Amino acid sequence: MKQSSAKILLASVFMARGTSFLFSKNLLTSMSPMSILATRFLLAFIILCLVFFKKIRECTKQSFVSGVMLGLLYTICMIFEMYGLRLIDSGVSSLIENMAILLVPLYVSILTKTLPKIKTIICALLALAGVAFLSLTQIQSNKGGLGIILMICAALTYAVCILFTEKAAQKCAPVTIGIFQLGTMGFLSLLISLATKSFAMPSGQNQWILILVLAVFCSCFGFTFQPLGQKFVPAESAAVLTVINPLTASIMGILIAHENLTPLKLAGYIIVLATLLFYNSRLLEQKK
Prior knowledge:
mainly alpha; globular
């Protein structure tokens, strides 16, 4: 796969993942966070096992272990995300979580003991400014500050997930990794929900429709094909492309959930969009 095609795939993946914030936000009014995660990811895992049965049979030990490890990391990230999402707007939640734009280059710099590209630094700073604007819109709401902290924790974990995904995808079958990742997320979420006595199956047509959308579109596609795209795209590039995730969540939050669009929010959205456009330009391509 060419890097340009891989970037298009990743953009589609992050768009699919962006829609999950609004669907999850709606479900959180009637289901516990861990019930949603358990049902969503176990259903997605079953569907993928049926579709990719041959790949499951040919799975190597390394692919299985990588999928389980990635599933563990993403479970931690999703727990922070779901509990933070209950407290603040879906669009703001998504954007704060995608501070991974800033964190991934910093992680890479620490691990390799080198400075990130000038363009990456500028994009990271722009993203941080956008997050700051959006955070100011939530702090005054009930437990909004706690919601922001939880989403920052999700961002810290998400950045690690992006780095681990790139490393694992280079050595293993990407789709297989994604399948076992979802299975691990579903299984761990089920164990936690049973241990906390919070598990409940979806009830009613509306809940099942939202769960199916989350399982098929946001999980089967949104999670499984990220390792495939990242096999051909550097982690820093993938991190900046995640901007599509919060933009999708923000647009859906405003148009569908009718979340308030204040001047501060608008400024944050514009800054994030500028970050994406700037990153995809040909300016400052040289490394520092």
